[in-house]
Design a protein that fits this description.
heterodimer; A: 567 residues; Cytochrome C Oxidase, Chain A; 15 helices; 64% helix; globular; B: 279 residues; alpha+beta; five-stranded mixed sheet; three-stranded mixed sheet; 4 helices
């Protein structure tokens, strides 16, 4: 190592030409960073719409026998809420983050197929517009699971159900194209020296996410096509009176639906695995175990779909098999949890907002993971399935899980994307409001479910303590929403007045911090040789060693705007 | 204190107490809950301890540890062992949850009839083969219950009721759950788990109520705009009272049918002339 004479690595990126401006530059762009930003902004708008729907649901349930909305509107609200959050927020938000950061983290100048990448985004937007256009006519009302025969033309004749089908088609195609693109980028465009064992864990997660999308999305595409032809062209795939089967829908839907859960949460696992080491100032504990458990979860995730169907008429041997596969998936998930805690152990933890969101994620996801074990035991599931216990479980996994990691990523990467820091004060306020609001909203929902409250009911009688529990939950949802609003204010404010970030404000480990903030269109002029899983740490050490005989100690960051420095 | 722990536990447990299968599910849930609480406290405790103890201080240096194979293998195996224990426990309880037990000696005599509307191999019966079999039919947005005792050769004419199922106490009741339209889910929390009513399929479950009373529930799977009002209740009464109720129900249905027939006949004679004019 001592004989290695390389130039002092410095930020080596410069703008070759003036940045394109104006709205046409956005709609014609094939730059992965601009596409990534469009993804994030679009999906965040849908997140807010889905959030408003959630608040209306909670307002309706805030009091027993409430008449704020009609049963029809209520069914439309939870259908729109679930569909929006899954297909228009979490999955594409992860795609947006990956769009911006995967090429930067692997040291590439763009995605493998830039124009295909633009197509992915526009398909997503088209799907969202088709779906939300139904608001002006009849929104779908069969739930995000759209079980047949309820979603058939007999029981849901309105066009809203068709809008839902087109949303699945368009966003599904968007996801598949995006997944192929991520896979090709990661497989072929990594920096020199970045072997599979040095791939950042977020990139590992996106690789696995892509493979899961390629396996799962075609299945739902086929299923909704069958639903479409059943509805309009006289086929009978799901019609038991003519040789079809309503259970076929459940099987196909959940064969997609369960991997979908991991499609939503694995990138979140990757984000936590990136962010924790930076703020604990320690390497990730058990890199190989975390990467391997990501792949193991993805594989097992393809074998557990029938645990959503424990109460359906299916053979007992399948119940037992699926219970085992669902148990098995808890093992790699548990390994990750303990690895993250071990990463914090004996570190020097800096309580910045991204770390808070990651710690909140671990605390909440653990609860979601444990309640998942209850649901995997099929006789217990017979009592808990389709109740508010399940509603609490999915929100602990997807909101406490995925959404908290997304917020961690927003706080962590905002400086890279805009060149400005977000306010720490507002960030912490946002975190505590969201954390407390989340627990107030969803913890009590376990108890509602145990007391026999089914999900998707627009009203309930004032029996037992249900009125009190629901009132608590409704209050919590507004605290949660106020936390989200604080972050929106924070982002809007920091775009104008945020502290200038410089290329590497967190002293992080991965290559995206090697370039300017925001990076120029070509990302890097020179891509450094990668020698470990933490290339920026090596680079800082190298800078420290070679700059004036160690004059500068810890915390060397290259000055903003510095150009390439050679020997 | 004992009372307090009991009520706290009830707060965190599913409803039970009506039927042996519901009680066994409740027990299985509680054992799982104890194991889960230990894991929950240990892991959240470790997280909280790490966050407080290892926060950045002046002069503190982070230990550059990259992993510990023995520790990692240890907790992987540990997690596996806990889950194997849970699986063993589930299998130990499964029989008492799934398989109906015999009616008590003071159960209803009707239970010896096997008034099956549909035959199936997957349906479980008590060891002595005797149960009161009731068909549960889900339809938007009403539960219908059909009791044994058809009077006509084509299987029709059996007594039925809506929304409220009346059953004799101390008698094993087996349910055959079907749907007339969309997917519904049959659920009375205190009488055991829920089972989907899927068009074209049969689901089966059972219960045996020892305490007379009213056990409430409702459809548990989204079935349309009236889903929240698709309520169900099981009213358990002593066997003699049940027999009397069933006989009365038969009589009332027969009377209503006769009245309807008479009204139809009257209508036919009135409109007969008109039908000739407008064929």
């Amino acid at each position: 190592m001592a004989t290695y004479v390389a130039p002092i690595p410095q930020v080596s990126a410069s703008r070759a030409e003036r940045e394109a401006r104006g709205w046409t530059s956005w709609i014609t762009t094939t730059d992965h960073k601009r596409i990534g930003i469009m993804y994030m902004v679009t999906t965040f708008v849908f997140f807010c719409l889905g959030g408003v729907e959630a608040l209306m649901i909670r307002l309706q349930l805030g009091a027993p026998n409430n008449t704020l909305v009609t049963p029809q509107t209520y069914n439309q609200l939870f259908t729109m809420h679930g569909t929006t959050m899954i297909f228009l927020f979490v999955v594409p938000m992860m795609a947006g983050l990956a769009n911006y950061f995967v090429p930067l983290m692997v040291g590439a100048r763009d995605m493998a197929y830039p124009r295909l990448n633009a197509l992915s985004f526009w398909l997503l937007l088209a799907g969202g517009i088709v779906f939300y256009a139904s608001v002006f006519w009849n929104p779908p009302e069969a739930g995000w699971t759209s079980y047949v025969p309820l979603s058939s033309s007999t029981y849901s004749p309105s066009g809203g159900q068709d809008a839902w089908i087109y949303l699945i088609h368009l966003t599904g195609l968007s996801s598949i194209l995006g997944a192929v693109n991520f896979y090709a980028t990661i497989a072929n465009m990594r920096a020199r020296g970045m072997s599979w064992g040095r791939l950042p864990l977020f990139v590992w997660a996106i690789l696995t996410y892509s493979v899961l999308i390629i396996f799962a999305m075609p299945v739902i595409a086929a299923a909704v096509t069958m639903l479409l032809t059943d509805r309009h062209f006289g086929t009978h795939f799901f019609d038991q009176a003519n040789g079809g089967s309503p259970l076929l829908w459940q099987n196909l839907f959940w064969f997609f639906g369960h991997p979908e859960v991991y499609i939503m949460v694995l990138p979140g696992f990757g984000l936590v695995s990136e962010i924790l080491p930076v703020f604990a100032r320690k390497p990730i504990f058990g890199y190989k175990a975390i990467a391997a458990s990501t792949v193991a979860i993805a594989f097992l995730g393809l074998l557990t779909w029938a645990h959503h169907m424990f109460t359906a008429p299916i053979p007992e041997v399948i119940l037992v098999f699926v219970m085992f596969s669902s148990f098995l998936i808890a093992v790699p998930t548990g390994v990750k949890m303990l690895n993250w805690i071990a990463t914090l152990w004996r570190g020097t933890i800096e309580f910045k907002t991204p770390l808070l969101f990651c710690a909140g994620f671990i605390a909440l996801f653990l609860i979601g993971g444990i309640s998942g074990v209850f649901l995997a035991i099929f006789p217990v599931d017979w009592q808990l399935n389709e109740t508010y216990f399940v509603v609490a479980h999915i929100h602990f996994v997807l909101m406490g899980g995925s959404v908290f990691t997304i917020f961690a990523a927003i706080y962590y990467w905002f400086p890279k994307m805009t060149g400005r820091m977000l306010s720490e004060g507002l960030g912490k306020l946002s975190f505590y409001l969201m954390f407390v609001g989340f627990l107030t909203t969803f913890l009590i929902q376990h108890v509602m479910g145990l007391d026999g409250m089914p999900r998707r009911i627009y009203e309930y009688d004032n029996v037992g303590n249900l009125a009190l529990y629901n009132a608590i939950s409704t209050i919590g949802s507004f605290i949660l929403a106020s936390g989200v609003i604080v972050t929106i204010v924070n982002v809007a404010r920091s775009l104008k007045v945020g502290v200038i970030a410089g290329p590497d404000p967190w002293m992080a480990n991965t290559l995206e911090w090697f370039t300017t903030s925001p990076p120029p269109e070509n990302n890097f002029d020179v891509v450094p040789l990668v020698r470990s899983a933490e290339p920026m740490k090596d680079i800082r050490r190298e800078v420290e060693r070679r700059s004036a005989g160690g004059r500068a100690t810890g915390g060397v960051t290259v000055p903003s705007g510095a150009t390439q420095v050679g020997v | 204190m004992g009372h307090l722990t009991n009520s706290t536990l009830a707060f965190f447990s599913p409803l039970s107490g009506g039927s042996p299968n519901a009680n066994q599910i409740g027990n299985l849930y509680k054992i799982t809950l104890y194991i889960a609480l230990v894991i929950f406290i240990a892991v959240e405790g470790a997280l909280l301890y790490a966050l407080i103890k290892f926060r950045a201080r002046k002069g503190a240096v982070a230990a550059q540890i990259r992993g510990n194979t023995r520790l990692e293998v240890g907790w992987t195996v540990g997690a596996g062992v806990i889950l194997v224990a849970l699986a063993v426990l589930t299998f130990a309880k499964l029989g008492s949850i799934q398989d109906p037990s015999n009616s008590n000696a003071n159960g209803d005599a009707l239970a010896s009839q096997s008034g099956l509307l549909y035959a199936s191999t997957e349906r479980k019966l008590p060891p002595n083969g005797k149960s009161l079999n009731i068909s549960v039919i889900g339809r938007q947005f009403l539960w219908q219950f059909v009791y044994p005792g058809q009077t006509e050769s084509d299987g029709l004419g059996a007594p039925y009721s809506y929304e409220q199922m009346v059953v004799p106490t101390n008698t094993t009741v087996t349910l055959d759950i079907v749907s007339a339209d969309v997917v519904h889910s049959w659920w009375i929390p205190e009488l055991g788990g829920k089972f989907q009513a899927v068009p074209g399929y049969h689901s089966y479950t059972w219960f045996k109520v020892s305490k007379p009373g009213l056990y409430r529930g409702q459809c548990a799977l989204l079935c349309g705009r009236g889903h929240a009002r698709m309520i169900a209740a099981v009213k358990a009464v002593p066997p003699a009272q049940f027999d009397a109720w069933l006989a009365n129900q038969k009589l009332m249905i027969a009377e209503a049918n006769a009245a309807a027939q008479a009204a139809r006949a009257k209508l036919n004679t009135q409109t007969g002339a008109g039908q000739v004019e407008n064929p």
